[in-house]
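During the reporting period the student researcher (J.K.) took over the structure-prediction task from the postdoctoral fellow and processed the backlog of single-chain submissions. One of the processed entries is reproduced below for the supervisory committee.
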Amino acid sequence: MQVSEYVHNAMENLVDDVIISRHLHEHYSTDFIDDLVCISLNRLPSRYICFDVDLLSHFGEDEYQELNEQVRQTVSEVEQYLLNDPRQHRSRNR
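J.K. obtained the following structure tokens:
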């Protein structure tokens, strides 16, 4: 059985939205952003949907806001984790 091409984890879009709204992609390398996305998604619960509009229809406004806050907090924590990780030798893009 093949899963539909439309099925995806809604958290991916929410993480992307946070990265874009905070302009993180303008300040860090592609490798850093890739790590930030992967680690953030691994720390967040999966919320699979077929279409982005399903996110609001499956979850109430309060739960949607809680998800957004959880994503913002997680991205911030992972950003600090990566910046403080002595194994990382990534430079800022500026």
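The committee noted the following: The two ends are 46 Å apart (CA to CA).
J.K. will present the remaining backlog at the next meeting.
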